[in-house]
Amino acid sequence: MTEAATVRRSRITPEREAELYAAVLDLLREVGYDALTMDAVAARTRSSKATLYRQWGGKAELVARAMRHQKRADFTNLDTGSLRGDLHALVLRADDCQMEQDSALMRGLAMAMHGNPDLLRAFRELLIEPEVEEMRVVLRRAIDRGEVRPDNPAMAYVVHMMVGGFAARTMIDELPPTQDFLTSYIDAVVLPALGA
Predict the structure, then answer these.
(1) 185 and 118 in contact (C-beta within 8 Å)?
(2) What is the pTM of this model?
(3) pLDDT tens track for 110-165
(4) Which of 105, 121, 189, 192 is the 20 to 30 A CA-CA neighbour of 26?
(5) Residue 104, pLDDT above cutoff 90
(6) What is the pLDDT of residue 5?
(7) Does 195 score more than 70 pLDDT?
(8) Distance CA 147, CA 28 (A)
(9) Torsion of CA 133, 55, 32, 30, to 10 degrees
(10) C-alpha 51: how far from its chain's center?
């Protein structure tokens, strides 16, 4: 984040920021990305539209930051002592109800990204790239522990596998992703692909 962006964001307390992000996610669930407006966010949060633009620059960044905030914390700090434990802990950060809501929200946002380069760019910068880096840290620990060979070709696809399991559950089985499904998926697909 640039110094200007850090200064720009300093006027809102963390509590107020969390309230704003929660309102943005609620609005997204209600109307979808395309119908979401900064006017609606301002009205819902009792903020001025000028403040929202000053703090976040626009709708795409606000939505991406709201999604990132919802993730609660990075998962590089989830060090259970094993790759299996780390990946299971990652899944257990959200309960089944939250995963179902997140799945529906991500499907809608994925469609919106196709026609909105600003949203795609914000998601890549604020969600995708940080999560890929966090997964690299988790995998480096697994390599250091001797659980995974550093030259395993599946290493480059772990994020793809994890996102795929989450997204495909609804499309293929017409069921939301759940903790049980995803932990089973990790044990049956991800860990064997890594030779762990």
Answers:
(1) no
(2) 0.75
(3) 888 888 899 999 989 988 888 888 889 999 999 999 999 999 999 999 999 988 88
(4) 121
(5) no
(6) 46
(7) yes
(8) 40
(9) 110
(10) 25
Predicted pLDDT of residue 6: 43
Within 8 A by CB and 6+ apart from 117, the residues are none
d(CA 36, CA 34): 6
CB-CB contact of 64 with 123 (8 Å): yes
Comparing CA positions, the residue from 152, 145, 136 lying closest to residue 80 is 145
The tokens 């992000």 sit on which residue? 21
State the alpha helices, DSSP H only, in the chain: 3-9, 14-31, 38-45, 49-56, 59-70, 83-91, 96-114, 117-123, 129-144, 158-173, 179-185, 191-194
- Provide CB contacts within 8 A for 17, sequence distance 6+: 9, 69
Question: Rounded to whole angstroms, how far apart are CA atoms 9 and 70?
Answer: 18
